[in-house]
Amino acid sequence: MTLQENNYRILAINPGSTSTKIGIFDHEISIFEKTIRHEAKKINTFANIIDQYQFRKTAILETLDNEGINISKLSAVCGRGGLLRPIKGGTYAVNDLMLKDLQSGYSGQHASNLGGIIAYEIATGLNIPAFIVDPVVVDELAPIARISGFSLIERKSIFHALNQKAVARRVAKELGREYSELNLIVAHMGGGITVGVHQQGRVVDVNNGLHGDGPFSPERAGTVPAGDLIALCYSGEHYREEIMKRLVGQGGLVGYLGTNDAKEVEQRITAGDKKAELIYEAMSYQVAKEIGSCSTVLSGKVDAIVLTGGLAYGAGFVKRISDRVNWIADVIVHPGEDELQALAEGALRVLRGEEEVKVYPGNFSTAKI
Known about the structure:
Radius of gyration: 21 Å
Order of helices and strands: EEEHHEEHHEHEEEHHHHHEHEHE
Oligomer: single chain
């Protein structure tokens, strides 16, 4: 299919646990966005996440039809990438192997696995391409960054790749440079926090934001003292599932303050809550420390430090971090996490010929120790 420059219209799809976010973009411009809420009762009738794809696809098509949007004018459909094999960053065409891995849950079951499947189902009926962009399994780690210090465990790359990469590219444009020319440190700060070293277009080091290491966040514990954690696990007082919940979901601000709402914490600080002030300061301190650590990976040659994600809306939180790290490089703030926009931009780069579409799984390999 030959696409005309003036006709690039993209449907972006981002499935969540109980909702599906969709957007229609004419080039980079959003002309329609909506979050489709799914009743928990209906979602729970499906034995597996993957069984939801037809239900969610129907909901998407009905929503677009009700809004009077003609899907025959679409140039491409782009879905959120799921838990696939480790791959390099970029925009990938959905192919048979990808569909198989998404359906089987190659690296785990998650609602995002539905993104590529639904995109393919809709695109195939329209004879247009289906893509995914920068899933959380993007792995561009340098071999040295994989070494954990414990020979039975290798460090893994699991991070907010979609937003980190999208924001890094936007900053490059603002600076009048190519992403592939710059050395950036990008801190995504949301329910989880990941800080990535972007060296000339590749994320060569990043903390595992799922349940690995790095700063604690509103919901996650981050790095904790290993010996004490092991002792806790073998104390006989806690189940495995309980410990995991305390690390992911009930860690960080939730564990200390009983909330994951940064605005609420800031209000408590304003009202004189000294514990809230200490914990909030500690979270910003750990983010700054991680940024400082990342600067050593680049031998101090850092073009910019980028703060993004929901927590970047907090002026006080941003200032606490900036005051500690702005001696390294200028701090640029891009608050929020516009995943639909990032998906559309990834598809556009391929449609415009600015980036070559990647074939899953590519020639990915990691250095085994």
